[in-house]
Amino acid sequence: MLKKILSFLVPAVTAITAGGLHHLGNDTNGVKTGVKVTTNAKVSTNVKVNVNTSKKTSGSINREAAGEVNSFRFDSLGNVTVIGGGEEGAGCELSYEIQGPSQEICDLISGSLDVKCSIEDGVLSIDYYCGGVKLNSSIEELYEGYNLSADLTVRVPDSVKDQSIRTSIGNITLKNVSGYFDLNTSLGNVSLDTVRSSDGSVFKTQLGNITAESLALDGSGELSAVQGNITVNSDQLELRDGAICSKEVPGNELAISTGLGNIRFNNNKI
Question: What's the pTM value of the predicted model, to 2 decimals?
Fold first, then answer.
């Protein structure tokens, strides 16, 4: 029996800036290939090769607001966290992981990846680009068999009162923000921390949990999960006639539904 294991390390760390990608230092990327050869009396040979590579890098981009930002539109390729800050500047921080069968292609993708934060007519937008080509939903649009998993944190000024966020696979987190929200993830959790929502706001997940802490209502809203638990804790809301509503304005109600899961309000199952 012959058993051979080959491994090597390739250093590469890249930072994303407003002007593009720049190498900063060392990181560790591992490629492991296991080859196992077995023989029998008939001298037949079976060879099995397994290759798994990944690459991680992080950086940040910043763009000062050219004017008042009042809306935020984003289709995520992974997790996204939005934090209200009260400053006029808008910026984001990104870390990501690229996975695929070739270290060379992973490096190529990383060297071609860019993120653009733009503000136009008061709307803040964030887009992913690879080799100058805008990505709509996945890196597989350009490289079949490869996966890009992003973790993006966006800081927005308090003037942002309209947010629309979509992700296929990834968690959505909001902290210290207010306004109208239209959030939807197919596979991921939705977390709300000190959020004040305007009338008609919707927070949805197909498969995941929804957690809302210190939620306030400036109108009616909806929390919906097809499969997942929903937990709401807030001293600004109360249970009245079987409905969760605002203490200040009882007519501002929160519709909560889950197809498969539990619903809890202020630590009580309902």
Answer: 0.74
